[in-house]
Amino acid sequence: MLIIMNLNTQRNDIDNIKNKIIEYDCTPHEIPGERKLAIGITGPTNLIHEEEIRKMKSVEEVIRVTKKYKLVSREMKEEDSVIKIGDSKIGGNNISIIAGPCSVESKDQIFDIAGRLKEMGINLFRAGAYKPRTSPYSFQGLKEKGLQYLDEVKKEFGMSIVTEVKDTHTIPIISEVADVLQIGARNMQNYSLLEEVGKINKPILLKRGMAATVEDLLMSAEYILAQGNYNVILCERGIRTFETSTRNTLDLNSVPVIKKLSHLPIIVDPSHGTGYWDKVAPMSLAAIACGADGLIVEVHNHPDKALSDGAQSLTLERFKKLYTKIKELTPIIKN
Ligand code: PEP
Ligand code: MN
User: Of 107, 138, 162, 173, which residue is the least packed, with the fewest Cβ within 10 Å?
Assistant: First the structure.
């Protein structure tokens, strides 16, 4: 359920409505927009007497949200959400590029990559310190040491850090360094993890599970918003299909589908989406052409020596070429 009010509504009137909602054992969520103020309501909304709410002071409209997901839906918020990360923004009129290696491997490795990306104008740096690997014998990440190196990158180059959180107990330590916490494909339906990151005050990058539908992804995002964290960025990273010529099938259909259903920004990961570096540039450009709000791309200084995902990592030179094309394409797409 959604209550629409005028932007100039007095604080007192908003609080009266919120208190009334709480009396019904529901949760009110204030959603400020450019033209209207909306209060989204979650919980057992079927018990609410609509007429009673409609008659309250400053209420313009009461709308029943028909979708299973509420807070993430366009019905709840018409305008695109724009997520702020340091001086960068994801969503709205921006095309934002997050780049970096799959994993933090050593201080030298991430300093070299981050320094060269920064020179190109990249401000959002990705690298995993806690890696969710399919095999328990594969490199699992440098963990705390990796976080420490990421913190040093942040201080040295002033870049914002995007890094994965795999479990609830590492949320506090990762939050000390990360500007964006990434929930990986394997954890998209780890509901206790989603609820916990919903309680923190940092942007969350939520990747689509490899066997998840768009609706599943939106329902997972709903878990985070329902806890009060509205700063969620969705990510299409490919799904499992019968096709074996690529690592995953990058479902670019999901971009316009999500744009219609949700106000949250959606970015694309062409690296995991394809699995091969030579497919990354064409699919990056396609992603931007179909309306994605940005990309997350794996870049490595020595892909052949990478401890994870080398085959899909771009060299810095290849990334630079791609980034030049992205900058040329951006004004055509966004105008
Ligand atoms: C990653 O970003 O390195 C990663 C593990 O991605 P995904 O969760 O999409 O597989
Ligand atoms: Mn990876």
Answer: 138
CA atoms of 201 and 180, how far apart (whole Å): 10
Architecture in CATH for domain 83-334: Alpha-Beta Barrel (3.20)
Q: Say yes or no: domain 2-63 is CATH 3.30.70.1140.
A: yes
Protein residue closest via CA to atom 5 of ligand 1: 184
pLDDT in tens, 239-253: 999 999 999 999 999
Going across the sheet that includes 59-63, the strands are 27-32, 36-42, 2-6, 59-63
3-state secondary structure of 150: helix
pTM beyond cutoff 0.85: yes
User: In this structure, which residue's CA is closest to atom 1 in ligand 1?
Assistant: 102
Protein residues whose CB sits closer than 6 Å to any atom of ligand 1: 102, 128, 132, 184-186, 207, 237, 269, 272
